[in-house]
Amino acid sequence: MTAQTLGGAAALYEHEHELFRESARAFLQREVVPHHDAWERAGIVPRELFAKAGAAGFIGMAVPEAFGGVGVDDPRFWAIFVEEAGRAGVIGSTNGIGLHETTAMPYFLEYCSSEQRERWLPGIASGELIAALAMTEPGTGSDLQGIQTRAVRDGDAYVLNGSKTFITNGINADLVIVAAKTDAGAGSRGLSLLVVERDTPGFGRGRNLEKIGQHAQDTAELFFDDVRVPAGNLLGEEGMGFGYLVSNLPQERMSMAVSCIATVEAAIEWTVGYVKERTAFGRTIATFQNTAFVLAECRTEAAVTRSFVDDCMRRLVDRTLTPEDAAMAKLWTSEVQGRVIDRCLQLFGGYGYMTEYAIARAFVDARVSRIYGGSNEVMKEIIGRSMGLGSR
To answer: Are residues 323 and 215 in the same domain?
Structure first.
């Protein structure tokens, strides 16, 4: 059971996409799967993985060829890579690449000046420069308007002070897009995006945070103590950061939605295979009516969810996906992910609690899906506001 057999994927993906899928699957089996357990124990993937992904064409797909990219702005390609990572059970090892490609990359493509494009895009496209996006702060969570990090203009630089937390690629990153207030009295209109480069004086990294899942994805605290960021590292226009962040969140949330449904489909496939082999009371677990009913319900949820996700992907490709559509996709898929994987794990019995089984790792990896990228409570607020409901 894969994206090719559920919902409307056949209409969504074309022949060139399926060729790309074969390449992505081979890359993951060769470069990631054999090392995933070791990287999970280490709590980080090697930087070389980004360079290998870049060389193989899985990074920088939308970057123009003049800057070393593939030059194809089609989100279906990165969706396939995310799907195959979920199918292989290695989301923890590939989420850093996903963050680099689908979350941070659009800011560089949309808002870089000509000089910045020359300076950064070739390294980003090759995977030699690893990117991160730093929005979340210890006291703000999903509230972008509550950001406290400050950047004060001082001659040809901004003096940056503050801290960020839960930052994916925080340890590995060479370029960190930092959301900071450049005008503390202007509310959301006072937020700007600054690119802080590795080893800039005053830029510090805290510990690699220990999580219950997705261990191979480095997640760090970042600190900025009188960091002088060159004015030439401002992304786009000063004071426009909030709008930039909001406009790019739908793509980030669709990446999460694709990851969620892919892991759901993989979990069902693993479970079907397991119950056909495992015996209890003299017969396979697959022959019990409860097993058939549970998995029938899981597959139905997966099929319906896949159809919705693929429809949202079509609208993302057509540039017609709305923020509330993306919020619904993220909300629904993450809830389905948690529910279905939990039910699948139950059918594994005691073995489902053992980390040597992919279902156990998928269970703990999935929990954060309802939190990051905007918690599901925030997704409900977005959807409610689109209906004229909720707080204003």
So the answer is: no
Compute CA distances 4 → 15, 191, 265, 346, whole Å. Answer: 12, 42, 11, 26
User: Which residues, 6 or more positions from 131, have their beta carbon under 8 angstroms from its beta carbon?
Assistant: 99, 100, 104, 105, 108, 124, 169, 173, 174, 175, 176, 177
Indicate the residue among 72, 94, 129 that finishes a domain: 129
Catalytic residue among 83, 238, 252, 265: 252
pLDDT of residue 350 exceeding 50? yes
Sign of CA dihedral 237, 242, 247, 249: positive
Domain tally, the chain: 3
Residue-wise burial string across 352-379, b where 16 or more C-beta atoms lie within 10 A, e elsewhere: beeeebbbbbbbbbbbbbbebbbbbebb
User: What is the domain-level CATH number for residue 50?
Assistant: 1.10.540.10
- Catalytic status, residue 252: yes
More confident residue, 246 or 48: 48
CB atoms near residue 58 (< 10 Å): 26
Shared domain check, 120 and 139: no
Question: Is-contact 231 157, C-beta < 8 A?
Answer: yes
Q: Tokens 């409610």, residue?
A: 384
- pTM of this structure: 0.92
| pLDDT, average across residues 213-225 | 97
Give per-residue pLDDT as tens, 45-71: 999 999 999 999 999 999 999 999 999
